[in-house]
Amino acid sequence: MKIEGTQKLHALRERVYTALTDPKILQRCIPGCESLEKTADDTYAAILKAGVGSIKGTFKGEVRLEDMRPPDHYRIVVEGKGALGFAKGSADFDLEEDDRATTIKYSGELQIGGTIAGVGQRMIEAAAKMMAAKFFAALEAEVTVEANAISP
Questions:
Q1: Phi, psi values for residue 134, rounded to 5°
Q2: Which among 12, 26, 127, 145 is least surrounded, fewest beta carbons within 10 Å?
Q3: For residue 11, what pLDDT band results from cuts at 50, 70 and 90?
Q4: Who wins on pLDDT, 102 or 128?
Q5: Which residues, in sequence order, are bridge partners of residue 107?
């Protein structure tokens, strides 16, 4: 399954990039993320509670940040397994400065297998879009709070 879109955040590109690569902020922004612990440079062990419809479970896996070109681009790679199956995917984020705001263009692919894949493509796509919307809303709150804390 492919997922792509654009999101405008009301913060400077450097601040958004820093937030997107900060594991503490990512943990707060990723829906259902219970922990994100560093295991190597730009690599983290993750525990995530997620699901589609009535099928929900806990997934353990790895998150890697790759192809980092601050403050313009990076790729996030995620792999996880749980009792309900597996999920793996990656997404590229390109950030453009836009009059004291940042436009993020994202594009990625997600593969899901096991019991959770049995709920159907439409439900999985809807859940992925909802998770992306929640992620960007939380990220907007993080960079806005940070900007307000820095402003005199």
A1: -65, -40
A2: 145
A3: very high
A4: 102
A5: 4, 92
